[in-house]
Design a protein that fits this description.
The complex is a heterodimer.
Chain A (H helix, E strand, L loop, with lengths): L1 H11 L1 H20 L7 H26 L7 H19 L3 H23 L4 H21 L1 H4 L12 E2 L2 E2 L3 H23 L2 H9 L7 H5 L5 H27 L9 H14 L4 H25 L5 H18 L4 H9 L2 H5 L7 H11 L4 H14 L5 E12 L2 E12 L3 E5 L6 H8 L7 E6 L2 E2 L5 H6 L2 E3 L12 H8 L8 H5 L3 H21 L14 H13 L5 E5 L7 H16 L3 E5 L3 H7 L2 E6 L2 E6 L1 H6 L1 H8 L2 H10 L1
Parallel strand pairs in A: 5-10, 5-11, 8-9, 9-10
Antiparallel strand pairs in A: 1-2, 3-4, 3-6, 6-7, 11-12
Helix pairs in contact in A: 1-17, 3-8, 3-11, 3-12, 3-13, 4-5, 4-11, 5-11, 9-21, 12-13, 13-14, 17-23, 21-23, 21-24, 23-24, 25-26
Chain B lengths: L1 H11 L4 H24 L7 H23 L14 E4 L2 E4 H23 L1 H11 L1 H6 L4 H27 L6 H15 L4 H21 L5 H15 L14
Antiparallel strand pairs in B: 1-2
């Protein structure tokens, strides 16, 4: 029944798909035949610059649109690319090809070194810091005349050559640059539609991701940010190197703040979050600049340069104000291509979902993959999965959790109850490493979790859900679960970017695995829907499926039953028992007593951060201290009645 | 930049100095208010990246307009006080430097009073902390944004006016100044007046020291480099405390 559903979807969407295909193919075709037309010299040189900026803009688009990091310092990497070609040639006579490679190596190491510290900054801090780096870079270029030629720069740098064939004409460079553009474009496009792109979207907060949720699914957010930063640096560097060999003379002013700003303007004009947008933005902005230089002298007498700047700024502001999503989004709305290009993910476009579905059936590779991880998980024979000893956490003067000790045995269901503000969620945050305890220690599988970060703890098989859901609203249901499978991913960045067989196999396996998890919670029929279209109960089940994708040993459920109807709570209870059948221990925060009483083997009651009682559900129900914590002391009530 | 340029041109056509300074500061506040009204307010719910780009775009346009109006040349103002320089034993200080110092101290004290003791200042802080929460207790997010923009551009204009007699001004000094100001505010701690002052003071000192002891050409690079390091090692600012938020 599911399969027929999908094939129906596929049939109805075939014609837009065809239209989309022609759209996508016609563009490269135009580019290939362009030099064959007569009198295109001017256009060719413009296209070369569009291509060069385009390469750098693609990198920035990846950084901004997918990883959510703003950079006003791409000029640094562009400059390093150009100067490594220039310096190596003028001082040592080394071939520009080698200069390009040196530039790539230099840029990736610099971006690696800078990335981790600087990407800890966010939003405007990051923008200002990268901007400052750009200023520093230009000053350094100017102040080291022996190496870089100082303010007057370096040159002439020869054109690139292959053997004895020198790329002298613009046509050669045109093809060289646009082939490079195509390589970067395809690489990045594959990346963003893969596990890599899913990981990026999962923590990109402005498009529906959440950094903490992402980390609890074993995604190393800092690592991914730094990857993207390195990639964007390499893009800018390669563009800079090519530019240096094309223009022959380089000087610091080419790489100053205005370059970085222009690049950012291109990406914003095209549309953040679209790789097409980066190229289109580069085209629009450079063409606009040309048009303005041509047109303004006709309208205005005298020097036109300042008017150009003003006109340029006004047009840019108009684009930002009138189309905040960029030109690409507007065009797509116009041509009604939207949903197909925007969600170009192989697993969400209905056709490939279908093919993945079939390919995923009865694939023996999956079990092999899972087994690789299993021995590590089953090593410890101790029946206790997690021990917290005298854990405290204070926020300033507020003691949120106070000297709390507890343990969870394997396959056990433990409920934590307590009035609002009792420290239940803080306890969860301590256990899975979102917060570090102020004192005390948590021991998971015989190892202290204090030195581990959140994603490392998740990797070791500790999963959680959130009270406030934190579903990735920018991804389909199945992709949400696929993010959870991240810990099993093995394929390298390179394999993913060039879509090598290993990466494709892995994608299929991950897809099937995720589908199984969805089937486990009964959501497989809505796998290709967006999560926001689901009812609350399904969203909560999706959260559980996503957490189960880690195949956890302990699952922390934060108020899974809140907002559900009594029948739904009963279904949830069955689900919790099913999860226990998998060998997973469950720690449950819940206010719905029917669920607690039905499921829990043991109940821990917290109040003001302290454990006040621990015991069987029936005992807890009758415990005077629990009743007091929830309802206040009996005498208080009678006293109040007397006074009133 | 705008403050200095306007004051210089007005003084150039013969207006008395205090009057032209006053007009310049009011004009910059009006420009700030316009930037907020036209660009920032209609898009205030979009991502901060877009807002940063909008204000940057606006500053590019203003810069271009300033160039059209005033051209390449840098402009200057006479010193505000009659005596050019004051000598105390062997140290000579420009009287204008003293004025700059006085203006800075007055501003700091003024901001302290404003944020600590006036309704508007407190409301503004509340709004910066959590604008949803602030609007729930009756603070208008819109008027706070507008007042903040007016206040910052007025202060920017004032800074431009008082510094012009010392350094002269030209159409292109704005952006480097803005970035230095922003960076020192970030390093000091964005929501703490004393932090911002500390940041600005440190940046100035670093610049002067590196110019004096290492190289005047590398001045900006060294000072900014140290500042980026400071920012990275303490993203919340030198003074700003760690925010205890709900995770």
């Amino acid at each position: 029944m599911k399969n027929t559903d999908l094939s129906r979807v596929q049939r109805t969407e075939r014609s837009p798909k065809l239209r989309r295909l022609t759209c996508i193919l016609s563009l490269p075709l135009c580019l290939v035949v362009l030099p064959l037309f007569p009198n295109v010299d001017y256009l060719l040189s413009l296209m070369i610059f569009i291509g060069l900026y385009g390469i750098a803009a693609l990198g920035l688009s990846l950084l901004m649109g997918y990883a959510g990091q703003i950079s006003l310092g791409q000029g640094v990497f562009y400059g390093i690319g150009a100067y490594s070609v220039g310096v190596l040639w003028t001082h040592f006579g080394i071939s520009p090809w080698f200069g390009i490679i040196c530039g790539v190596i230099l840029n990736s190491s610099i971006a690696y070194g800078l990335g981790k510290p600087i990407l800890r900054l966010q939003g405007h801090s990051l923008a200002v810091a990268t901007f400052a780096l750009n200023i520093i870079f230009v000053v350094l270029l100017r102040e080291t005349p022996k190496l870089t030629g100082g303010p007057s720069g370096l040159g002439p740098i020869p054109h690139l050559s292959v053997g004895s064939f020198v790329l002298t004409s613009d046509v050669h460079y045109y093809y060289l640059v646009w082939i490079t553009v195509a390589i970067f474009f395809i690489f990045y496009r594959n990346l963003v539609s893969s596990k890599f792109g899913r990981a990026l979207r999962s923590f990109h907060s402005f498009s529906g991701g959440n950094e903490i949720a992402s980390a609890t699914l074993a995604i190393d957010v800092a690592k991914y940010k730094s990857y993207v930063f390195i990639l964007s640096a390499i893009s800018a560097g390669v563009a800079g190197s090519l530019c240096a060999t094309y223009v022959a003379y380089i000087s610091p002013s080419l790489f100053d703040f205005w370059f970085s700003l222009l690049l950012l303007i291109m990406v914003m004009t095209g549309g953040i979050g679209s790789l097409w947008g980066a190229l289109l933005g580069a085209g629009i902005i450079l063409a606009l600049r040309e048009v303005l230089t041509e047109l303004l002298p006709i309208v205005i007498s005298g020097p036109a340069a300042p008017y150009e700047v003003v006109a340029f700024g006004v047009i840019f502001l108009a684009i930002l104000m009138l189309m905040p999503g960029g030109v690409v989004k507007m065009l797509m709305r116009f041509f009604k291509l939207g949903s197909h290009i925007r969600r170009n993910d192989p697993s969400t476009s209905p056709g490939s979902l279908h093919s993945l579905w079939q390919a995923g059936l009865d694939n023996p590779v999956e079990d092999a993959l899972t087994k690789k991880f299993l021995p590590g998980q089953q090593e410890s024979v101790s029946p206790i999965a997690l021990i917290a000893s005298k854990v405290s956490k204070n926020f300033g003067g507020l003691m949120a959790v106070c000297s709390l000790s507890m343990e969870i045995r394997k396959g056990e269901i433990v409920a934590i109850i307590g009035p609002n503000g009792a420290g239940k969620t803080t306890l969860f945050n301590l256990i899975n490493g979102v917060l570090k305890p102020s004192s005390g220690e948590i021991n998971y599988k015989g190892q202290s979790t204090t030195p581990l970060s959140c994603h490392e703890i998740a990797f070791r098989g500790l999963a959680r859900t959130f009270q406030d859901l934190r579903i990735f609203t920018n991804m389909s249901v199945i992709e949400n679960v696929m993010v959870g499978c991240h810990k099993w991913d093995k394929a390298s960045l390179f394999a993913v970017g060039f879509r090598l067989p290993s990466a494709r196999d892995e994608e299929r396996i991950v897809f099937r695995k995720s589908l199984k998890k969805l089937a486990f919670v009964g959501l497989e029929s809505v796998a290709d829907k967006m999560p926001s279209s689901l009812p609350l109960k399904s969203q909560k089940l999706l959260l559980i499926a996503r957490a189960l994708a880690l195949e956890p040993e302990i699952l922390l459920l934060d108020e899974p039953a809140s907002g559900l109807s009594p029948t739904e709570v009963n279904e949830l209870a069955d689900m919790i028992f099913n999860i226990r059948q998998l060998g997973t221990a469950i720690l449950l925060i819940e206010h719905r007593m029917e669920l607690v009483m039905k499921c829990a083997d043991r109940v821990i009651v917290l109040n003001f951060g302290e454990k006040i009682v621990e015991g069987q559900p029936e005992d807890i129900r009758r415990d005077a201290r629990v009743i007091e914590a929830y309802l206040g002391r009996q005498t208080d009530v009678s006293e109040n009645q007397e006074t009133s | 930049m705008l403050g200095g340029m306007i004051a210089a041109s007005l003084a150039g056509v013969g207006l008395p100095l205090p009057l032209s300074a006053l007009i310049a500061v009011s004009a910059t506040s009006i420009v700030g208010a316009m930037v907020w009204l036209v660009f920032v307010y209609p898009r205030s719910h979009e991502s901060p990246i877009l807002l940063i780009m909008l204000t940057l775009g606006a500053s590019v346009v203003i810069r271009g307009l300033a160039f059209i109006l005033w051209g390449w040349d840098s402009k200057s103002l006479p010193s505000f006080l009659p005596a050019e320089a004051i000598s105390i034993s062997r140290i000579t200080i420009f009287s204008q430097s003293i004025l700059v110092f006085v203006a800075a101290v007055t501003t700091v004290v003024g901001l302290f009073v404003f944020f600590g003791y006036t309704m508007l200042g407190r409301a503004m802080q509340a709004c910066a902390d959590d604008h949803k929460g602030a609007s729930l207790i009756g603070i208008r997010f819109e008027s706070m944004g507008l007042s903040a923009f007016i206040l910052t551009s007025a202060l920017g204009g004032l800074a431009g006016v008082v510094i012009t007699p010392l350094t002269t001004t030209a159409y292109d000094i704005g952006i480097p100044l803005a970035i230095k100001g922003f960076l020192s505010a970030l390093v000091g701690g964005l929501n703490k007046t004393e932090g911002v002052i500390l940041g600005g003071f440190t940046l100035g000192l670093l610049e002067a020291l590196s110019a004096g002891f290492i190289s005047s050409g590398l001045r900006d690079a060294i000072a900014l480099g140290i500042f980026v390091l400071l920012l990275v090692s303490r993203p919340q600012g030198l003074i700003g405390g760690i925010e205890a938020g709900r995770i």
